[in-house]
Design goal:
Distance between the termini: 22 Å
Shape: elongated
Strand order of the largest sheet: 4-3-2-1-5-6-7
Order of helices and strands: EHEHEHEHEHEEEEEEEE
Number of helices: 5
Length: 202
């Protein structure tokens, strides 16, 4: 397993025990532009910094401390966001899973842009925001929960989504979802939920 972590702009998590557990044993870390500030905040020096550096404060002072081969610069007029470039960079290095940290608050279009990455063949496996986490669910998935925890689900595959679940107040067994459907504010009944995908991805 080659775990890749991408720090991106916007608000992200503080270094709680849960976040530390997710981020530990990362094989490769990268910061997309101002994602470097989030990495610094939680005490991580990324292996690479990439992007057009248009939103990184004191960029030149920060980059002066990095080896040139660890800095990947792009022109500001480009077809892809820094987050997209970071995701493709980590995927190109063989990383799986890929975890994005940050991206909460700020511009709504950037938030939607990160969400839309989950629809791609090369997609994040997890997105850790300020207080919430999104996870790509394919095959069999289980998660520790607490009774009453809110779990919302969205289909992110191009075709049909069929699944079975255990531990949710409203089970998913009879549902057939397509893009545009969603299950907002389902509720965990206890300490664990399980989802088995029969087709597609959530």
């Amino acid at each position: 397993i080659v775990k890749g972590i991408l720090f991106t702009g916007g608000e992200g998590p503080s270094l709680s025990e849960e976040v530390a557990e997710i981020l530990k044993d990362a094989s490769l870390t990268a910061a997309a532009d101002s994602g470097f500030e989030l990495a610094q905040k939680i005490g991580i020096k990324p292996d690479f910094i990439l992007g057009d550096m248009d939103s990184l404060k004191n960029a030149e002072n920060i980059l002066r401390d990095y080896p040139e081969e660890r800095i990947i610069r792009y022109k500001s007029e480009k077809d892809y966001t820094d987050t997209e470039l970071g995701l493709d960079f980590l995927a190109g290095k063989g990383c799986r899973p890929i975890i994005i940290a940050g991206g909460w608050g700020g511009r709504t279009d950037h938030f939607i842009g990160i969400y839309n990455l989950f629809f791609r063949d090369i997609h994040p496996d997890m997105w850790i925001m300020k207080d919430e986490t999104a996870v790509s669910v394919e095959g069999f998935f289980s998660m520790d929960t607490y009774a009453g925890e809110i779990i919302s689900l969205f289909p992110v595959s191009r075709g049909l989504c069929r699944m079975k679940s255990r531990g949710l107040k409203w089970e998913l067994d009879s549902l057939k979802w397509i893009t545009g459907d969603c299950g907002i504010s389902n509720v965990a009944l206890g300490s664990r939920i399980e989802i088995e995908m029969k087709e597609g991805r959530l």
